[in-house]
Amino acid sequence: NRYIEDVAQDSVRLVLALVWGSITITATQRRSAADVLKRKGSRAVVLTDSRISRGVLTAVSWLGGNIQGYPWSQLEQAVEDAGGESETKVKLRDVSRKYYQSVQGTDEGES
Asked: What pLDDT score does 109 carry?
């Protein structure tokens, strides 16, 4: 899985995932994501309006992964909880807002 390979890279300490619609993830992928985050001590923050996807993220956290899902309405809180330097937070906010603006009005929406 490309996502797991990317997260497993030594340079990755924080993952910010921007999701429009639902996440499709198998039990094996959930376990792999939790294992990588736990082993590396990395943190993942996911922005998604899908309640189902946030439930899946909760399951990953139960497996030991340091991951938290937020609805898009809590963008500011998600960026704050992600941690990092203030310059990094500014970049995370900017990228997240641009992505959100680019997908608004598409068919995926909330689920």
From this structure: 52
Angstrom CA distances, 46 to 38, 57, stand at 16, 8
Contact 103, 20 (CB under 8 A): yes
Q: Which of 16, 70, 10, 5 is nearest to 41 (CA)?
A: 10
Decide: helix, strand or coil at residue 45: strand
Distance (Å, rounded) from C-alpha 46 to C-alpha 37? 13
Dig out the tokens for 22 from the structure. 């639902």
CB 50 within 8 A of CB 80: no
pTM (2 d.p.): 0.81
Among residues 85, 86, 88, 41, the alpha carbon closest in space to that of 67 is found at 41
DSSP codes of every residue in 50-98: -HHHHHHHHHHHHTT--EEEE-GGGHHHHHHHH---HHHHHHHHHHHHH
101-50-84 Cα angle (round to 5)? 65
pLDDT block averages, 10 residues each, the chain of length 111: 80 85 81 86 90 88 88 94 88 94 72 44
